[in-house]
Amino acid sequence: MLTDSSIALRSASPSLLMRVIKFVIARGKPVFPHDEAGFHTVMTGRRLPVDAPMPEGFRKRFIVEEREVLGSRVVTLHPKGGPGAWHMLYFHGGGFVQPMFKVHWPLVAEMVKACGISVTVPLYPMVPEAPYTAQDALADAVYAELAARHDPARIILNGDSAGGHMALALALRLARSGWAMPGKLALFSPWLDLGLADPAIVAVEPHDLMLKIGTLRACGGLVAAGRAMDDPAVSPLYAAPDMLAQLPPTRIWTGRHDIFIIDSRSFLGRLRAAGVDAKLYEYEAAPHVFMAVLPTREAKDVIGLLREFLAD
């Protein structure tokens, strides 16, 4: 059940399957190198990243629309019965430098199926092969296109990790420009401060199996491209109160073994102080973007809460 508190601990201990998943993650190849030097080595002279292909089975399960916007592929999944009352614009994670992962597609499919919504997924270009401005421009263009044919009040912005940053940054650009705002905002394990400045993050880092401070700061510096790390356009955590006050009802989901949990809590406080209807859902010992591991009890809870959020 939902609580009246702005922070709710939804899982006091990890499920057995979550423990198994963490065991596997700890012994597998890391998504990102665990040190700054390793990150720079991987990024230097790499081949152009390629998005994981959408499973062909989706064409039987959903109505699939594909188009090109600003030179990038954009995919929309509708329920088989037709477009949903809510339309989600979803940005995948990957530190702005990694493409759509294979695990992202089942997450998108589950949100369509469980929530009865349509979901649009921009397959945006990667930094450093493309500048951050190309990512922002695509997000703006896809939203404008979507809002032109769908009531903005029934659009929800969502994303995981760096994608959560992109969803939030888009909402803040809309607020600054006076464009029509989306009706709701959902953030899965969002990366809110590219510089990870809060010293409290250090205490969480040993428990995080995927993310390390040095690596992320190096990645964040690459994305910032010379801009100050506390510039709200770089790190939405630092957005001004008058900008935050314009945001729609917001829900955040983060695991307690995710170094982003610290900034999620800080951001929640800033949202509430600005008068935004905001809640943070935490999951004990859950790793980064745990909601993509769909069979777990924790991921099912996230999808259930998302469904309730859209039913309000």
TrEMBL record:
Q: Which Gene3D superfamilies match?
A: alpha/beta hydrolase (3.40.50.1820)
Q: Is the keyword Hydrolase assigned to this protein?
A: yes
Q: Which GO terms describe its molecular function?
A: hydrolase activity
Q: Which InterPro entries match?
A: AB_hydrolase_3 (IPR013094), AB_hydrolase_fold (IPR029058), GDXG_lipolytic_enzyme (IPR050300)
Q: Which UniProt keywords apply?
A: Hydrolase
Superkingdom of origin? Bacteria
The Alpha/beta hydrolase fold-3 domain covers: 88-291
**Protein name per the record:** Acetyl esterase/lipase
Lineage from the top down?
Answer: Bacteria, Pseudomonadati, Pseudomonadota, Alphaproteobacteria, Sphingomonadales
